[in-house]
Design brief:
alpha+beta, 7-stranded antiparallel β-sheet, 5-stranded antiparallel β-sheet, 8 helices
């Protein structure tokens, strides 16, 4: 089984001794990025804010109002099953019929007082069907959207998404928004375009399509997956990983699930890390707590990872996770790495 190291590769030398010390159960999974391995990221939406005026700005969401195509307004803009729909002159439009559509996004900067807001114009330059390899649930292909942002200072359109692992700059629409804390919210007037280089789209492509029914609460599992994919242990929107770090992901969704499955043998050097819910990590493994930076989390989120009067919330198996949260349904294993500067997080 090959291991994909992603953008920046595996950091340092894996502490393989910890694998044996912790009694880790087999935890590798099927993956659409590489069999057994998924790649993490730190960006939620992955939308680049191009231009000097956009420095410090963060995406709130794309507006269902103000959209147009060929100079004529679009109405009833909405997201259905991961696909953008609209109407013009009473006729429904979807798929490639929306190439050339212009949309506006709401962005804001919370790092200044008072916070500032702006509207940014985007256009769709291409629409292609999602490829079958990124549909592990076999629930049907959706569409991928190439987006460009208008940059007033240069008078040019610029790509809104960074290239993903396939070298493509594309986005997937989701009928919800995610705020600065990583909280998922339903907003009737806003939706998200998640770049395929960001974790919203990564979790979608791992099979956690929020609208699916019959396999558990996929909207919540998708949300929990975004916490996992950024190592957002505290559930406050702060990532504790590096782009391209390799992890194993699996779930315990009901039949016909699980979507990401465990197989017999773990990848060499990987150890159980955590179980997750929408609020972040339910608990973390002893191997993860051995790292210096992990101890800093006791100050960052003591109510979450340290049980009052009981010490650290530890879990080295799925069963131990479920002892802390019986509803936890998504889990991961990762590398424990060492470099010359000391112990590092994943």
């Amino acid at each position: 089984m090959g291991i994909s190291t992603g953008v920046y590769g595996i950091y340092g030398v894996a502490l393989s001794a910890i694998v044996f010390a912790c009694g880790v159960e087999p935890t590798t999974t099927a993956s659409v990025e590489q069999p057994g391995i998924n790649m993490q990221g730190i960006n939620m939406q992955g939308i680049n804010m191009q231009g000097i005026d956009m420095q410090g700005m963060a995406m709130q969401g794309f507006s269902v109002d103000g959209a147009s195509l060929a100079g004529a307004p679009l109405g009833n803009v909405r997201i259905e099953r991961g696909e953008l729909w609209a109407e013009q002159g009473g006729a429904p439009l979807r798929g490639a019929a929306l190439v050339g559509a212009h949309l506006f996004a709401q962005v804001r900067n919370l790092h200044v007082s008072p916070p500032t807001s702006a509207r940014v114009e985007y256009r769709i330059t291409a629409i292609t069907p999602e490829v079958a390899q990124y549909d592990p649930t076999r629930s049907g292909n959706t569409y991928l959207y190439a987006l460009e942002q208008w940059v007033a200072e240069t008078g040019l359109w610029q790509a809104a998404c960074a290239a993903d692992a396939d070298g493509k700059s594309l986005a997937i629409p989701v009928a919800a928004i995610f705020d600065e804390r990583g909280d998922r919210k339903l907003a009737p007037s806003l939706f998200t375009f998640g770049c395929t280089s960001g974790v919203i789209a990564k979790c979608y492509r791992w099979g956690y399509r929020p609208w699916l029914t019959g396999e558990g609460d996929l909207a919540s599992i998708h949300w929990a997956c975004t916490r996992l994919a950024r190592a957002d242990y505290c559930g406050d929107g702060t990532p504790h990983t590096r782009n391209g770090t390799s992890i194993d992901v699996w779930d315990r969704l009901p039949a016909p699930g699980p979507i990401q499955r465990r197989v017999l043998l773990p990848a060499l050097g990987m150890v159980f890390e955590a179980g997750w819910n929408t609020g972040g990590a339910v608990c973390m493994s002893r191997a993860r707590w051995l790292q210096d930076d992990a101890y800093l989390l006791t100050d960052a989120c003591p109510d979450r990872l340290v049980a009052p009067g009981l010490g650290m919330r530890l879990c080295d198996t799925v069963a131990e996770v479920l002892g802390h949260d019986a509803n936890a349904q998504i889990f991961d294993a990762s590398y424990i790495n060492l470099d010359l500067g000391g112990l590092l997080g994943r």
